[in-house]
Amino acid sequence: MATQNLTATLLLFTTFLFISRSISAVHSPPRLNATTNDLAFIRTSCNATLYPDLCFNSLAGYASAVQNSPARLAKLAIGVTISKAKSTALFLTKLSRSATKAKDCASYLKDALDEMRDSLRTLRNISRGVGIDAAPSSVEMFRFKLSDVQTYMSAALTYEDTCTDEYEEMDEAGGTKTAVYDRVNNLKRLTSNALALVNSYANNGAP
């Protein structure tokens, strides 16, 4: 009998600990390895975008790596968008087996991905100084190279717009159509934000 009581007591104590830790985990703030200044830089930079809350939430976790660098922030934003574009294109590719219009949309997103990769590659080259001399014209060359990045990201956004525009003509079930719109529209917002951060870098950055 004593053994049963001890077992029951231990079980209650273990359950209490589990519940307490669960509640604590729910109410504890996320532990970001970043300073207040790092996060403030992300927040301030995101205020220049059309979707500042989405911008901050998607990038704040990397604040310690970005610190106060517009170049790193622009590269990060494009990298996050590329990741989302990959998952969205994969979703549409799988969906195309039952929804034919999704195949065209997936194709447009793959084109958008190519543009994003070109933009990220160009940004990395800028950071390494590739194609930018130390001559007085280096600022002009810096802005010229960044204009390529802006063109690539604008093209990616156009491909995404084309995807949703053409999908309006589909006769698929409403749930499928909504799922496509939700995913692609979220991707479009991320792309728009990344482009805005590239624009800010172009206006305020330096080679």
Structural account:
The protein has 207 residues and is mostly helical. It is built from 8 helices and no strands. Helix 7 packs antiparallel against helix 8. The chain starts with a helix and ends with a helix. The N terminus is likely disordered.
The quaternary structure here is single chain
* Secondary-structure element string: HHHHHHHH
Strand pairing plus helix content: what structural class? Answer: mainly alpha
Compute the number of strand runs.
Answer: 0
- In terms of DSSP E residues, the strand content is under 5%
- Main sheet overview: none
Using the CA coordinates, give the radius of gyration: 23 Å
Q: End-to-end distance, in Å?
A: 78 Å
Show unreliable segments. 2-32
- Average pLDDT confidence is 80
Q: In which range does the helix fraction lie? A: over 70%
Query: Which of globular, elongated, flat, extended, rod-shaped describes the shape?
Result: globular
